[in-house]
Amino acid sequence: MTKNVLFKSLLFAASFIVLLICGGIVYALVSGSWEAFSQFGVFQFIFSSDWDPTIGNEHYGALSFIVGTLFTSFLALALCIPFSLPVSLFIGEYFKGKKIANFIGSVIDLLAGIPSIVYGLWGFYTFRGLMVDLHLSSEGFGILTSSVVLAIMIIPYATSLSAEFFKMVPNDLKEGAFSLGATQYDVIRKVSFPMTSSGVFASYILALGRALGETMAVTMLIGNTNLLPTSLTDTGNTMASIIANQFGEADGLKLSSLIAIGLLLFVITAIINLIGRFIMKKFAPTK
Amino acid sequence: MKMKKSNVLLIFAAAAMLISCSGKKSSNTEKIQGAGATFPLPYYTMAFKTYQDSTKTEVTYGGIGSGGGIRSLKDKVVDFAASDAFLSDEEMRSMPAVIHIPTCMGAVVLAYNLKGVSDLKLTGEIIADIYLGKITNWNDQRISSINPGVKLPNLKIVPAYRSDGSGTTFVFSDYLTKVSKDWASKVGAGKSLKWPTGIAAKGNPGVAGIISQTSGSIGYVGSEYAFAQNIAYAQLQNPAGKFIKPTLASISAAADAELPADTRTMITNSSNSKAYPISCFTWLILYKDQDYSNRSESQAKATMQLIDWMLSPAAQSLTTKVNYAPLPASVIENAKKQLSSINFGGKALHK
Known about the structure:
The structure holds 2 protein chains of 2 kinds. By secondary structure, chain A is mainly α. Chain A has a domain at 71-241 and 276-283: MetI-like (MetI-like fold), CATH 1.10.3720. Chain A is 76% helix and 1% strand. The two termini of chain A are 39 Å apart.
């Protein structure tokens, strides 16, 4: 009896502590950004693309970074799906259970293990030159380069999770379809996808969440210009990158503005996750 | 419930590890920590290592940018900060009293990446207009007219600048405000600026990296970064009209002027005809009253000894090894006077 109570209370205590930590983080973010929001007004801060650290004329606005973050993350997701979907089908459907599927799965997981700063280094010294040679970018820095490297970084997250969902499709359903004369393509379209769509979608939301918060690789490739990016070849900056660049020396109003940007990143990630959940619920397979 | 022997051993091992981690390392030597500018980082790396080898006092220095160094000093997590930008009067009002000790002189060079162009002359106004986005191509008439005989390509100019709060930016922008009215009114001087155009990177090494990797780029870096990575840099025109390369002589010539006793001054655009226009001092900043945050007197003494050593001939002679210039004798004298005003809770600190 007591073992049960002890176990239960340990679980509750752990959950409570996690909730407390989460609440503490939110509280710290909100209280830290108070100065910036009261100085500039919440809406003004969010929709202003002016980032002026000139002493005596300081004005900070988060719009360039919000646009930069959303632009690079969604573009990265768009670039990742054409690779992650086929690979997850390969692993979870066509070669399910076979050695080659395991091998490819492990290689993809290796991609996930590469530290972000190493991606940044590789991007800076190798990939950037490639972008210039392919005439996709004039100096190699910018939204497009960082989005491509981001896409490579998030492929493992999207792939391994959606592959798991494809693997979970019961064999007898598929065999039933095959026996009725369906091709593999039909089976994927009519049986696997409807079953796994919400799970696959969830994996893309996970990948997107990873892309939203990515700092080091992006900051080395995006050009760090605090201006609103208007095209793919433009340089820009993201919320995580500006914080990484300027946090060490920021003080007073600037520090508060950076914390406010951190809070906004937190809120945006949460909103995207909520929207994702909502869409998944709507399109979940009806039992 | 009887615990298995292996479990007990495991718990003991974990506890032992935890206990050993938390204890303070007992040592007789003090550990001195500094942080700040990346501009003098090559010099400090060499100097601090020399000091460490000879006195066995561990000195760690983090090149996080002048802004970062000042912030660390404000947060009282370092013994000294390093900055190429001295604190403004307003900044000094927001902190307890500090002293600035200059350690060496250096040059901010305009490094560029142009294949086949080994000699380039630039004027301050041209540089300002490049960074303002007014001159966008290397074959612009203004650049080619002062570089006769040099084949300048039809290539877009990519100006590089610092994304973090930088003393090097402070020195560079101070120079630009002196040579370009447009720059002074549109952008001004400071550690962090609203740059109209270009791309940015963190730290002197970051800007040097952009320049060495991007064809057509130009950027401002500490001279040692250009030398070490074999990046070409431009000759600049000084107020006397001469085009000067940054050398030991031309950097030292910039200090040939009336300098204030607390050594807080900019020596850019010196009127001396032999001087390199973007020369600067770089400082170590520390609190005058070393009795703060539970500092021990021995820690304060050790810090003071290190800074005093930095002003000694042994340290100053190391500057030329990294292509920086030693301090002129009058500045060393001023600096030593400043250093002697350090106290520990009002009590004078002696070496």
